[in-house]
């Protein structure tokens, strides 16, 4: 079983398997991500229309590049995620480089309404990962109505890849320009 077509091709190649023997079954999404009230998050944290990252806080998720890209911008950044064992030093580096516009909200249970509310309150979701398989957070953000930016290393479904700008995961400068463009772009109702 593979989560998407790139993973299916990779499994076939690595294990010398006939691709016809591998079934692609993507993750499903909880409807609450598209319908919950954004004010739950807004009231708790006092911010809305921010840049959001939801991922475990670890090197391969690359939050440090996002923090560097956001430094000195007028946009708030919210990072939601737990710190896996062995990544405490990385988290400390993120905290040290963050300016006053960064909120480290910690991790939430997947079914916690505050998580879905955070997606709904955000304006832009950014996933700067250096490595991913099928990031469920990307699709949760899309269902919630966020604009989305992802690194070139994040697989995106063919049906939507033309809608999502990408950037090199090691380039805070390019990411910063994309964030500014997306945050300043007028909202649409579609």
Description:
The protein is an alpha/beta fold and about 190 residues long. Helix content is about 35%, strand content about 15%. The protein is built from eight helices and six strands; from the N terminus they run αααβαβαβαβαββα. It has a six-stranded parallel sheet, sandwiched between helices. It is globular, with a radius of gyration of 17 Å.
How would you summarize this macromolecular structure in one to three sentences?
The chain has helices at residues 5-14, 32-35, 39-45, 63-70, 88-97, 113-121, 136-144, 172-184; strands spanning 51-54, 77-80, 102-106, 124-127, 147-151, 166-167. The termini are far apart. It has 8 helices and 6 strands, in the order αααβαβαβαβαββα.
Features:
single chain; 190 residues; alpha/beta; six-stranded parallel sheet; 8 helices; 6 strands; 37% helix; 13% strand
Which stretches are low in confidence, meaning pLDDT under 50 for 5 or more residues running? none
Q: For the largest beta sheet, what order do the strands appear in spatially?
A: 3-2-1-4-5-6
| Annotation, overall tally of beta strands | 6
Largest sheet: 6 strands, parallel
The radius of gyration computed from the alpha-carbon positions, rounded to a whole number of angstroms, is: 17 Å
Residues in helix, %:
25-40%
């Amino acid at each position: 079983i593979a989560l998407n077509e790139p993973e299916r091709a990779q499994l076939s190649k690595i294990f010398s398997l006939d691709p016809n023997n591998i079934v692609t079954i993507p993750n499903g999404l909880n409807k609450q991500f598209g319908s919950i009230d954004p004010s739950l998050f807004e009231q708790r944290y006092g911010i809305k229309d921010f840049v959001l990252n939801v991922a475990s806080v670890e090197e391969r998720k690359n939050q440090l590049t996002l923090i560097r890209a956001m430094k000195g911008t007028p946009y708030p950044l919210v990072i939601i995620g737990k710190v896996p064992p062995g990544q405490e030093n990385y988290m400390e580096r993120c905290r040290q480089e963050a300016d006053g516009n960064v909120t480290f909200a910690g991790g939430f249970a997947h079914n916690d309404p505050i998580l879905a509310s955070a997606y709904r309150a955000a304006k832009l979701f950014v996933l700067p990962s250096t490595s991913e398989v099928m990031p469920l957070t990307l699709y949760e953000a899309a269902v919630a109505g966020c604009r989305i930016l992802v690194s070139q290393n994040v697989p995106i479904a063919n049906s939507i890849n033309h809608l999502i700008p990408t950037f090199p995961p090691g380039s805070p400068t390019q990411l910063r320009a994309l964030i500014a463009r997306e945050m300043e772009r007028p909202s649409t109702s579609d």
